Amino acid sequence: MQVTEAILAGTAVSPDRFPKDGLPEFALVGRSNVGKSSLINRLAMRKKLAHTSNTPGRTRTLNFYRINSRFYLVDLPGYGYAQVSQSERRRWGAMVENFLANRESLAGVIHVVDLRHPPTADDRLMAEWLRVHDLAVLVVATKADKIARSRWESHRRQVEATLQPSRCVVFSAETGLGRDQVWTWVVERLSG
Ligand code: GTP
Ligand code: MG
């Protein structure tokens, strides 16, 4: 996909601030610090579109990035970050769940996991939750550049065996590996 326009069109903590134009939306979910915001930047080929950080818990709101005036990538707060207070975690959880369960314009979910390690208990819970809600899911196993190429395939198989997605892409925000495959899935969802 050629990204000609990528704009942070809105930031929301409640539904009254979600976009009202009805464009299809693709949400990014995953553990805190796994690389959701970096994935958005790589997809859009914009280094500073979404804020990334070494500190987990950087993304605290729902951020709507409008791409080519055609659809949104929605960056969601990550799960599984222990330093966040109980009450804040509950609030984020409710906000994210409410969005994923009820958003009419949601066209798909990109579930981001770390290729280096087996999926965590939280990753498994999220996959199960997405399945129960019958959402179209692409699993993206990122940070591939951090392990030897010879291990990509066995790690991908472990992710697939554990989360059982309909499709799984090995990705690196650093090198751009897997970018075309993610866009292919998005375009399929847009036209189907
Ligand atoms: P939260 O907003 O806190 O939930 O985190 P996030 O999932 O948005 O993660 P973010 O994109 O901020 O990335 C976290 C850290 O991982 C940053 O230091 C990134 O530079 C790094 N990172 C993300 N993706 C990759 C990747 O593919 N390769 C490498 N080497 N580093 C990555
Ligand atoms: Mg983030």
Protein model, in words:
- The protein has helices at about 35-45, 85-100, 120-130, 150-165, 180-190, and strands at about 5-10, 25-30, 60-65, 70-75, 105-115, 135-140, 170.
- The protein is α/β, with parallel strands linked by helices.
- The chain has one domain: Rossmann fold (3-Layer(aba) Sandwich), CATH 3.40.50.300.
- Strands 1-3-4-2-5-6-7 form a seven-stranded mixed beta sheet, sandwiched between helices.
- Strand 6 (about 135-140), helix 4 and strand 7 (about 170) form a beta-alpha-beta unit.
- The protein is globular, with a radius of gyration of 15 Å.
- The two termini are about 15 Å apart.
- The relative contact order is 0.17.
- The mean pLDDT is about 95.
- The structure holds guanosine-5'-triphosphate (GTP) and magnesium ion.
- Guanosine-5'-triphosphate binds near residues 56, 57, 59 and 142.
Write the topology of this structure:
Layout: E1 6-12, E2 25-30, H1 36-44, E3 62-67, E4 71-75, H2 86-102, E5 106-114, H3 121-132, E6 137-142, H4 152-163, E7 168-170, H5 179-191
Parallel strand pairs: 2-4, 2-5, 5-6, 6-7
Antiparallel strand pairs: 1-3, 3-4
Bound molecules: guanosine-5'-triphosphate and magnesium ion (MG).
Magnesium ion binds at residues 36-37, 58-59, 75.
**Percent in strands:** 15-25%
N-C termini distance: 17 Å
The largest pleated sheet is described as: 7 strands, mixed
* String of helices and strands: EEHEEHEHEHEH
Level of helix content? Answer: 25-40%
CATH architecture: 3-Layer(aba) Sandwich
Please mark out the parts with pLDDT under 50 across 5 or more consecutive residues, or reply none. none
Number of helices: 5
CATH superfamily: P-loop containing nucleotide triphosphate hydrolases
What compounds are bound to the protein? guanosine-5'-triphosphate, magnesium ion
* Number of separate strands: 7
Could you say which overall geometry the principal axes of the C-alpha atoms support? globular
- Strands of the biggest beta sheet: in what spatial order? 1-3-4-2-5-6-7
Q: Pairing-aware structural class of the strands and helices?
A: alpha/beta
Radius of gyration: 15 Å
CATH C-level category = Alpha Beta
Protein name: Probable GTP-binding protein EngB
Function: Necessary for normal cell division and for the maintenance of normal septation.
Organism: Kyrpidia spormannii
Family: Belongs to the TRAFAC class TrmE-Era-EngA-EngB-Septin-like GTPase superfamily. EngB GTPase family.
